[in-house]
Amino acid sequence: MLLLNPGPVTLTERVRHSLLQPDLCDCESEFYDLQDEARERLLEVYALDPTQWSAVLITGSGTAAVESMIAALVPDGGKLLIVENGMYGERIAQIAGQYRIAHEGARHDWMDAVDLQRIAALLDADGTFTHVAVIHHETTTGRLNDLEGLAAICRERGVRLLINSVSSFGAEAIAFDDDCVDAVAGAANKCLHGVPGASFVIVRRSALPQATSRTYYLDLVRLARLQDQRNTPFTAAVHVYYAMVEALREFEEEGGREARHARYAALAEQARAGLAERGIHGVLPAGQSSVVLRAYSLPPGLAYLRLHDGLKSRGFVIYAGQGGLSATLFRISTMDAVTGADVERLLQGFTELLPAESAHP
Ligand SMILES: Cc1ncc(COP(=O)(O)O)c(C=O)c1O
After folding, report:
1. Is 359 a residue whose pLDDT tops 70?
2. Which residue from 9, 70, 88 has its CB within 8 A of the most atoms of ligand 1, so it is best to mutate?
3. Which of ligand 1's atoms lies nearest the C-alpha of 137?
4. Which of 48, 99, 107, 348 can pair with 43 through a Cys bridge, CB separation 3.0 to 4.6 Å?
């Protein structure tokens, strides 16, 4: 079964086998070696300087990293503007609400690009905003939001930027070199090809002294401090870390981020072109989508469940649209150990499932 959902991903055999290493107590030096290697390799993905940046590991899924980042980095007295053009942007607003962090949402239609002029106007109209949060790759629609444009707006106004890169870290460029970026949240089981259960925040070290400890388990400040001291406050997901480190070694050997981007781009384009030949079109122009995932309009006469189940019986798991989009679109991610031959077989599956009248040869 090949997983074409946006994580958990289809594992390589090498990563799968890495789970079978010796049992390890997370208070032993071998575990701290593993933790150190994971942290160093995460910074190497974007060639970040470890004296400037800290990779903080969290046992928990991607949302745990996002929550840890938001809860820690908007200080008491700060105010967060949340860029929302999909489900994950809206989730950040829920997190901010839960922690009673002063915030406002810049709501967009889920299909729309971020209106940068509107963000600038909102920041200018209310000088109390200290932070902006954004989803880099809004997995709801596959849209890659314009980080550089947003960072420029934040930089000009002295506002700090917090980025959810859960579904883009490792495959898309991230504006780490922009001084306004304070933190980026990611997960092991997406573009890095690890297993679910570990996530991380790449945080600018200079942002930590101002950070607050609103949460106990997800406290970024304590996690960063203890991990720097080769320690951990709680039982870490040891086997998940084994897999994350092996996936990061494989990532490097395969050519790093540029190679992964190029591979995803080729697979996404192959799927796009093949589906277009069959009369199925992306909901966004390819230039606005990430290379990680594309959303497509459901063809007339083919309900999602029939498509999903038909492809599943042929060995592929695709992904439904979220919320109100579930009736109109479906999503395909080529973010894993998928090959061009797999995409060809997938396209053949579409040919077999499409009602005769909706196929456009
Ligand atoms: C952009 C983004 N943020 C957050 C999440 C949530 O991750 P998790 O379900 O691992 O907590 C996802 C999951 O797909 C995502 O794509």
Report:
1. no
2. 88
3. 1
4. 48
Distance (Å) from CA 63 to ligand 1 centroid: 6
CATH for the 12-253 domain, from 3.30.1840.10, 1.10.260.40, 3.40.640.10, 3.30.9.10: 3.40.640.10
Q: Which residues of 334-343 are buried (b: 16+ CB within 10 A; e: fewer)?
A: bbbbbeeebb
Residue whose tokens read 């079978």: 20
Residue 129 CB coordination number (10 Å): 24
Q: Tens digits of per-residue pLDDT, 59-105?
A: 999 999 999 999 999 999 999 999 999 999 999 999 999 999 999 99
Return residue ranges of the chain for CATH 3.40.640.10: 12-253
Question: Amino acid identity, residue 117?
Answer: Q
pTM, two decimal places: 0.97
Specify the residue for token string 């396209």.
347
CB atoms within 10 A of CB 308: 17
Ligand 1 environment, Cβ below 6 A: 6-7, 61-63, 66, 88, 135, 139, 164, 166-167, 187
Residues of each domain in the chain carrying CATH 3.90.1150.10: 256-358
Residue ID of nearest Cα to ligand 1 atom 14: 6
Q: Which two tokens stand for residue 330?
A: 């479906």
**CA 270 to the chain's CA centroid:** 22
Fold of 256-358: Aspartate Aminotransferase, domain 1 (3.90.1150)
Nearest atom, ligand 1, residue 7 CA = 14
